[in-house]
Amino acid sequence: MNQNAHTNLDQDLRLSRTAKFERSEHEAAEWIFDTLQLLQTERNLYDVGEHGLAEILKDGKLLCRLGNLLGLPLAPTAKYRTSRMPFVQMENILFFLQTCDMIGVGHDEIFQTVDLFEAKDPYQVVVTLMSFSRKAHELNASAFPTLMGPKVAKVKPHVPFKPLSLRGRQ
Predict the structure, then answer these.
(1) Mean of the per-residue pLDDT values for the chain?
(2) pTM confidence score
């Protein structure tokens, strides 16, 4: 019997998240580049195919630039700095996460700093960007004209009642 054929739930979830990330990585990068209106020369510096989304966003600079587009008066992202020092880069990421919290991105959708900085869970970064794009579009549609990811349902779907024969006796 081949023991490699068996996986546990953690491995299956990791494989599933990795597959979702691979499908959405380029969409996330294109949304960031389009929203920030980066010129082709600057886009070439951030080659997703060569570096990967996590490596491109690791210093927090592009994330803070996204946060600054919101035009919030006290946005934490306004304090970002460009540096090669890991502490400063992690602080930039934290500024973006604080901005996400300010605009109402759900806590369950916000990634942890290590998810991006150490590439622990890059798909969670994409989930945060999807939610950020929806909230940012609501706040400032001119700066964020396009949405990333699926649209949120506004109407609760109709769920039919169970027939009496299938309902539990109470």
Answers:
(1) 88
(2) 0.81
